[in-house]
From TrEMBL:
InterPro entries: Endonuclease_7, Endonuclease_7_sf, His-Me_finger_sf
Organism: Streptomyces violaceolatus
Name the record gives this protein: Recombination endonuclease VII
Short name of one Pfam family: Endonuclease_7
Organism ancestry: Bacteria, Bacillati, Actinomycetota, Actinomycetes, Kitasatosporales
Amino acid sequence: MFGFKNRGEGRICNECVRIKNAKGNLKRAYGLTFGDIAQLLQDQDNACATCLAPFSQVDPDNFRMGDANVDHCHARGHHRGLLCMDCNIAPGKVKDNADTLSRMIDYLTA
């Protein structure tokens, strides 16, 4: 169903490779497990932490992040929550500077 890859001493299922990579990437990059992602989704009502748009493609039981992105602080290295792609890009564009974001809010509401 998923196909196989030839590896060293034998063949390995493509789906097994995907799951192993997904778990490893999440752990290595953010120190999180898919159990942690499931908890974050529950805490955030399965929606983006900032715009509140519901996630539609996330499935931690099948090790898929889908349209959820782990937001993290580059300076301190901790994760803050799950965001949609647009909301995840925004803090990076202003270099995580709260003063800049505050001025942007003032600008937009003037």
